[in-house]
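TASK: fixed-backbone design
INPUT:
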């Protein structure tokens, strides 16, 4: 079992930045792929970014490419999502998720159903 807790959400003006954190506890976080998803009101949960065990391989949704950066510090059992140049359309609840995989190079898990463990979510609101 892995428990995930997000933090760092809040209200920010368009063009601003936020850094989300995802603290993991339980089993060894370093052997899990981590993903960040978001869900806006009335919309389905969608992938934002994913990262492999070591952080060497990453995936980004087109909508955030070049603005968001996913990273992880396995020594601290924590993942991060740095969000820059935020837009009103980035407003959503952001969730971190984790799934186990035997392959250190695996990273491109982009469906909600790919993940076993989820945090409770953190609200990000971007005002125009």
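OUTPUT:
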């Amino acid at each position: 079992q892995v428990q995930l807790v997000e933090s760092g959400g809040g209200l920010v003006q368009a063009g601003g930045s936020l850094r989300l954190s995802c603290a993991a506890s339980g089993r060894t976080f370093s052997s899990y792929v981590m993903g960040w998803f978001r869900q806006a009101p009335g919309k389905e949960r969608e992938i934002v970014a994913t990262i492999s065990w070591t952080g060497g391989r990453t995936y980004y949704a087109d909508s955030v490419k070049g603005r968001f950066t996913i990273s992880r510090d396995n020594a601290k059992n924590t993942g991060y999502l740095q969000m820059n140049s935020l837009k009103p359309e980035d407003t959503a609840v952001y969730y971190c998720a984790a799934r186990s995989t035997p392959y250190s190079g695996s990273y491109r898990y982009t469906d909600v159903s790919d993940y076993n463990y989820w945090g409770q979510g953190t609200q990000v609101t971007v005002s125009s």
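COMMENT: The CA atoms of residues 5 and 120 lie 7 Å apart.
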